[in-house]
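WARN no homologs supplied; continuing
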Amino acid sequence: MKNFKIFFTSLALLLFSFGNAQKIGVVDTNYILDMMPQYKEAEARLNSQIDTWEQELQGMQAEFDKKRAAFENEKVLLVGDQLKLREKEVMDLDKNIKTTTSLRFGKTGEISQLRANLVEPFQDQIWTAIKTMSEKNGLGIVFDKSNDVNVIFLQKRYDYTDKVLSILLKGTEEKEKKTNKK
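OK structure emitted
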């Protein structure tokens, strides 16, 4: 009788644990972003702006190199205030280049802010699609394998990237149809 109670309790706990098990899914948000046409367009505009800034910076650097070389060549001929003025001019150009580089290309520069502003609306769309997909499929946990999660092995049935992508693309197609009808 005692063995029967232990067996029955173990069986009940086992069945209960299976009933409460969480389903897990994995999604690759970088892949999803790469497949979204609107994101590609926005990223192309950002890259164009970055190229413009890099060209501007190269022009500033060329001007600095030219002025510095001219200053070094004429240094022996300059006296007093002229020497200080030309040296200050060269130093100001160098400082301007460093400031511009820091403001645009630094960790908290304009590029970082623009990239964050670019990605944020798309991440919101992806999050909404993931939420919809996880509710449809009864998922308790969804991991993003494109970030710091190291996925060593993943069976295709647990990868919900394509389902999220289809939800997103279906939503954008519906928006395009509405704007075309107007």
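The beta strands are 23-27, 139-144.
OK
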